């Protein structure tokens, strides 16, 4: 089995580096400064108590790889980049290629299934950071990350089991889940806070807005008849993975905030909070807080607002203006 990690950012970088260091065959797809840094010096993985160096083949796109029957693709880009990535992938890859969506949100699997019959959902719980080209940081300990993995829309097959086995051997915790989307919808509820944390000054300001956004989401999920997992037992989760410290490396909040810090030019809010807006509207409901957060994310990208400096009054005004 060869792992093609499509998107060497925080999640993809930690996965690719650790799998390579565990002896697995890995090929990466990266872009821009990350690609240049990896071509020159490989990829450095910093983790609690350890620094590892990985050097594996890395390319600018799937056209350069030459796929075989042993390949498995991990999609690890943000949701807003998925469609373009899939269009490039389907042009050169066999339709029987297994595609695993190691991504936040719940729209990636549907997009992938249009092109690849063997599509898998993955719930990603991994504290990781990428802000410096050529280096990624994984803060999880004793396992770097936790993953629920299953066939989309449901089920478990031998490929899912084998991927879980190999990932677990590489110091992650991977669990096969026949109902993986229930797990992914639970993660989506938590990810509604990504943009809130990126906009607001601190957690005291963020919490009331998250409660409102989550209430809209729960109402939309109920109206749609979508089940999601209950909250994980904190003690059970802590036994599998806790957040560790890495000397000299700051953990920079959510993936959304990291996109803003890197000036990535796009943000995933439309595929997190925007998913709730869509679901609510499909079922005759309104989601004004989540709709406002989507619009505010665009204003931050445009430079009209500064990350971590948006006031309650500005958020409230956006909610009133959007209306759901």
CATH homologous superfamily grouping of the largest domain: NAD(P)-binding Rossmann-like Domain
**Count of helical stretches:** 13
Gyration radius, in Å: 19 Å
| CATH class bucket of the largest domain | Alpha Beta
Mean pLDDT: 93
What is the chain-wise order of helices and strands? EHEHEEEEHEHEEEEEHEHHHHEHHHH
Principal-axis shape equals: globular
Structural class: alpha/beta
Fill in the CATH topology of the largest domain: Rossmann fold
Examine the secondary-structure arrangement and name the CATH architecture of the largest domain: 3-Layer(aba) Sandwich
| Euclidean distance between termini CA atoms | 46 Å
Task: Give the low-confidence spans.
Answer: none
What is the number of domains? 2
Topology, number of strands: 14
Please bin the fraction of helical residues: 40-55%
Descriptive overview:
The protein has helices at residues 10-21, 32-41, 82-90, 108-113, 158-169, 180-191, 193-199, 203-224, 234-240, 255-261, 273-282, 288-302, 312-322, and strands at residues 2-6, 25-29, 43-47, 50-54, 58-59, 71-75, 99-102, 119-125, 128-132, 135-138, 140-142, 146-151, 173-176, 241-243. The chain is 43% helix and 19% strand. The strands form 3 sheets. An 8-stranded mixed sheet has the order 5-2-1-6-7-8-12-13. A 4-stranded mixed sheet has the order 4-3-10-9. A two-stranded antiparallel sheet has the order 11-14. It folds into 2 domains: 2-183, Rossmann fold, CATH 3.40.50; 190-322, Orthogonal Bundle (N-(1-d-carboxylethyl)-l-norvaline Dehydrogenase, domain 2). It is built from 13 helices and 14 strands. α11 runs antiparallel to α12 (288-302). The protein is of the alpha/beta class.
């Amino acid at each position: 089995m060869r792992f093609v990690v499509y998107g060497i950012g925080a999640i993809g970088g930690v996965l690719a580096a650790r799998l390579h260091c565990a002896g697995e065959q890995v090929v990466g797809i990266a872009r821009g400064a990350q690609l240049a840094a990896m071509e020159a010096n490989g990829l450095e993985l910093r983790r609690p108590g350890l620094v590892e160096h990985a050097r594996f083949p890395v390319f600018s796109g799937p056209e350069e790889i030459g796929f075989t029957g042993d390949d498995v693709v991990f999609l690890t880009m943000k949701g807003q980049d998925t469609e373009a990535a899939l269009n490039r992938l389907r042009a050169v890859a066999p339709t029987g290629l297994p595609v695993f969506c190691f991504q936040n949100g719940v729209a990636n699997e549907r997009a992938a299934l249009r092109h690849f019959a063997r599509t898998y959902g993955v719930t990603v719980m991994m504290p990781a950071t990428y802000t410096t080209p050529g280096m990624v940081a994984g803060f999880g300990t004793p396992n770097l990350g936790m993953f629920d993995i299953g066939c989309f829309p449901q089920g478990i097959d031998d490929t899912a089991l084998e991927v879980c086995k190999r990932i677990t051997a590489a110091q992650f915790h991977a669990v096969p889940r026949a109902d993986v989307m229930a797990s992914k919808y639970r993660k989506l509820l938590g990810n509604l806070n990504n943009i809130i944390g990126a906009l607001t000054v601190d957690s005291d300001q963020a919490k009331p807005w998250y409660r409102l956004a989550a209430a809209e989401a729960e109402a939309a999920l109920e109206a749609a008849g979508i089940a999601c997992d209950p909250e994980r037992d904190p003690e059970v989760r802590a036994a599998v993975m806790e957040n560790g410290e890495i000397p000299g490396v700051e953990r920079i909040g959510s993936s959304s905030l990291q996109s803003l810090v890197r000036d990535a030019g796009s943000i995933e809010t439309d595929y997190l909070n925007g998913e709730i807006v869509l679901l609510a509207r499909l079922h005759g409901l309104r989601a004004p807080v989540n709709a406002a957060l989507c619009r505010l994310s665009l204003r931050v990208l445009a430079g009209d607002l500064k990350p971590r400096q948006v006031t309650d009054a500005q958020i409230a005004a956006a909610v009133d203006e959007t209306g759901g």
